[in-house]
Specification:
Layout (H helix, E strand, L loop, with lengths): L1 H24 E2 L6 E4 L4 E4 L2 E3 H8 L1 H14 L8 E3 L5 E3 L4 E3 L9 H8 L9
Antiparallel strand pairs: 1-2, 2-3, 3-4, 5-6, 6-7
Length: 125
């Protein structure tokens, strides 16, 4: 019984630590509408995923890796206006909203305001 409780505590600690790692990899370098994800290796602004901003914020390796990913899927198939960051944060440039995850309609007010400048009361879907 004690072993099961110890395992449960260990699993909980690992899950909490992973969630914090994902959350801490996402940051907002400028108040002017930029979000970056160190773990995913790219940055975006209110126009979508940006190679130039990725290079400025995360360096040339990150921008090259992003370009490689774009070329892998094909420039014509790459949609920079919809992106999902580590931890599930999903942003839709055309809607000017970020959501807690890709499959939920729950708006993430912090990310939405930081990226698009939308106030929380304007975020109804």
């Amino acid at each position: 019984m004690k072993l099961s409780i110890a395992r449960a505590c260990l699993i909980t600690c690992i899950l909490v630590a992973s969630a914090q790692t994902y959350a801490s990899s996402i940051y907002y370098p400028k108040p002017g509408g930029v979000v970056c994800d160190k773990k995913a290796g790219y940055c975006a602004d209110d126009q979508g995923v940006s190679v130039a901003i990725t290079e400025m914020e995360l360096g040339p390796r990150a921008s090259k890796a992003l370009m490689d990913q774009i070329h892998q899927v094909g420039v014509e198939n790459f949609d920079a206006t919809a992106f999902t960051m580590s931890g599930g944060l999903h942003c839709e440039v055309k809607q000017k909203k970020c959501f807690t995850n890709k499959y939920d309609n729950k708006v993430d007010p912090k990310a939405t305001k930081a990226l698009f400048g939308n106030e929380v009361f304007n975020l109804q879907k």
